[in-house]
Amino acid sequence: MDYDPKRLRSGLADLLVCPAATLDQKLAALFSESVVLDVAHPVNRLEGLSAVRDKYLVPLRAAIGGAQRRDDIFINADNRRGNGEPWLAAVTHIAGTFEAPLWGIPANGRLIFLRVGEFWEVGPDGRIVSGKLIPDLIDLMRQCGRCPLPDTLGSQQIWPGPATHDGVLPAKANGEQTLDLVEGMLGDLTAYDPETFQSAGQTGEGGYWAKDMFWYGPGGIGSTYTYPGFDRDHRIAFLSAFPDRLGGNHYARIGSGNYAAVSGWPSMTMTFQGTYLGQTGNGEKLTLRVMDFYRCAEGQIAENWVLLDYVDLFRQMGRDLIAEGASL
């Protein structure tokens, strides 16, 4: 299919800065009239251009003054999990002054960086026909001093871009091999020793992860360095709480150059059997929306950016994190 990822990337950025009078025109040029957009809770499913405009874009533009889109990763490739249709995947920050409430989160009047994970499906006419978005609302609350979850895991901070600074429309060579590496890691990560929490092939000589790997987690978890740090600051706590978690239910897997991106909506199913971030489970059956972005180098995974819809996850546990944060 003939489509222009540069035009689509520019069009997405323009939606934040164009005059309000031209927004409908910009939307029609970028999206199919029947576009379907799934956004993290509390926005959820939006059907058609009007819904995308009124329930996603207009609130963003009203809340974040002088909003600028700052892409760290933006890749495109054919979807290995679909019928070969093209997809775009991005890690971006929407930067600006938080001037008005956004989806129930009170504004703080200061500079914020709202990280967003994006997957966009491109249709036959070169316009976007569907998309999945996870704006990290828990991290936004953290930036405002209103995070309702305890800070007990990794380092809570604004994400860096790739160490190599080449994540925006990278050269497409080797994308299939990069995705092969990531898929191998995901397959072996599924099984683990319940005593040590270790999975085969992850580290060491010939392992999937580089010795100096970085793992950038979402609000509520935070980021960490090296695989032992990943175990300590995320994996052991997660598996202890959700020992039967089953992931990999992905609608999209793409690879371009040294980058790969995968996502499921939901990706994981599990039961809550332990204590996690201050919440104790009672066997609740849960699902988790997931986005993972990877940079690989020399046959190993060097960096991993992860978006998780924890507002939706905790909703299933009976908690409204946005309302809790607003009351702090």
TrEMBL record:
Any Pfam family: SnoaL
InterPro entries, alphabetized: Cyclase_SnoaL-like, NTF2-like_dom_sf
GO BP of this protein: polyketide metabolic process
Name of the protein this chain belongs to: SnoaL-like domain-containing protein
Protein species of origin: Pontivivens insulae
